[in-house]
Write a structure and sequence with these properties.
Elements (H helix, E strand, L loop, with lengths): L1 H35 L3 E10 L4 E13 L3 E3 L1 H10 L3 H21 L5 E6 L1 H5 L3 H12 L6 E6 H5 L3 H13 L2 E7 L7 H5 L4 E4 L1 H6 L4 H16 L3 E4 L5 H9 L4 E3 L7 E2 L3 H7 L3 H12 L1
Parallel strand pairs: 2-4, 4-5, 5-6, 6-7, 7-8, 8-9
Antiparallel strand pairs: 1-2, 1-9, 1-10, 2-3
Helix pairs in contact: 1-2, 3-5, 5-7
The protein binds ligand C2E and magnesium ion (3 copies).
Protein name: PAS domain S-box-containing protein/diguanylate cyclase (GGDEF) domain-containing protein
Organism: Blastococcus aggregatus
Length: 291
């Protein structure tokens, strides 16, 4: 029986791999048409200021609405688009949509920054700065309202060319942010070299903050490092009031995570921005204490 079980395990695993490969192959096949037909959608997640007690920014996150497969998350198709040579058109669509949504919010009187996630391939293709410039111009969005988030791994292989493109974006007035800081990379030298103003601490740090003293010490260390370098540090993945309090105690001034809001469609933003109430998190804490 053990042998039969083993075999069926292997078969199940093989089928799982098969279907995973089948899905990736299928997504690769469908991606060009999806781009052409604009089967993508942007959602926006609040970034909050602890001192300001309000939503200061919105991170734009792309979704693929596949007619048969439903919503496909970016972790499944960004690397695919990179491999298929389609990341530049996809990022151009993202830039266009997100800057127009941001401009509409400003026209409606909402003072928030918008973050866009950038692909290293776009930077390597050499057209990121001009593409950002034309998206801003077409949308009528001031450059200083835009934050470009670049994943840490990108910074590591940043060659001189990439550095100068980043410098161009900075000179244009855009704000540069290091995303997923601390996720699997250990070189810190680029932090001193590149023109970044924001450091986004990976959510793994936040997840560990309540685990033990070491987890808390690491978070304090990342906050201290960022602040000493003159950067604004954003904690990602804040899910509980306990995490909020510990981060606050350690001087963290900017946070993002499900506690403050899940990503929502652009249509819902006026409502989300208007209804946001910092006091409701204190209420949650009091409710916790009552139990
Ligand atoms: P990211 O830039 O680090 O974005 C944050 C991710 O964490 C988002 O996942 C968000 O939904 C999720 N998240 C936010 N708060 C919480 C929380 O409290 N707990 C947990 N567990 N997760 C939380 P999402 O939307 O699936 O995006 C995944 C990644 O895909 C992003 O990570 C980013 O690297 C990439 N991505 C998303 N949109 C774009 C895009 O337009 N262009 C590019 N190049 N990459 C994108
Ligand atoms: Mg990001
Ligand atoms: Mg990222
Ligand atoms: Mg991140």
């Amino acid at each position: 029986a053990a042998k039969a079980d083993g075999k069926s395990c292997v078969r199940t695993a093989a089928r799982a791999i098969d279907s995973a490969m089948g899905r990736r192959a299928r997504l690769a096949r469908d991606l060009p048409a999806a781009l052409e037909q604009e089967h993508f959608r942007m959602v926006y997640q609040p970034v909050v200021g602890v001192e300001e007690r309000r939503i200061l920014g919105l991170e734009s996150l792309v979704r693929w609405d596949h007619p048969q497969l439903g919503t496909v998350p970016p972790d499944e198709f960004i690397s695919l688009a990179e491999d298929e040579g389609l990341i530049v058109p996809l990022q151009r669509w993202v830039l266009g949509r997100a800057t127009r949504d941001a401009a509409a919010l400003h026209a409606a009187g909402f003072e928030v920054m918008t973050s866009i996630n950038v692909s290293v391939r776009h930077l390597q293709a050499g057209c990121l700065a001009p593409d950002v410039a034309s998206a801003l111009a077409e949308a009528g969005l001031p450059p200083h309202k835009l934050i470009l988030e670049i994943t840490e791994s990108v910074m590591l292989d940043a060659e001189d060319r990439l550095e100068s493109d980043l410098a161009t974006l900075k000179e244009m007035g855009c704000v540069l942010s290091v995303d997923d800081f601390g996720r699997g990379y250990s070189s810190l030298a680029y932090l001193a070299r590149l023109p970044v103003q924001i450091l986004k601490m990976d959510r793994e740090f936040v997840a560990d903050i309540e685990r033990d003293e070491r987890g808390a010490t690491l978070v304090a260390g990342v906050l201290d490092l960022g602040h000493r370098l003159g950067l604004d540090v954003v904690a990602e993945g804040v899910e509980t009031v306990g995490q909020l309090r510990m981060l606050e105690e350690r001087g963290c001034r900017f946070m993002q995570g499900w506690l403050f809001g899940r990503p929502v469609d652009a249509d819902s933003l006026p409502e989300v921005l208007t209804a946001f109430d910092w006091g409701s998190f204190t209420a949650v804490e009091n409710a916790d204490l009552d139990i």
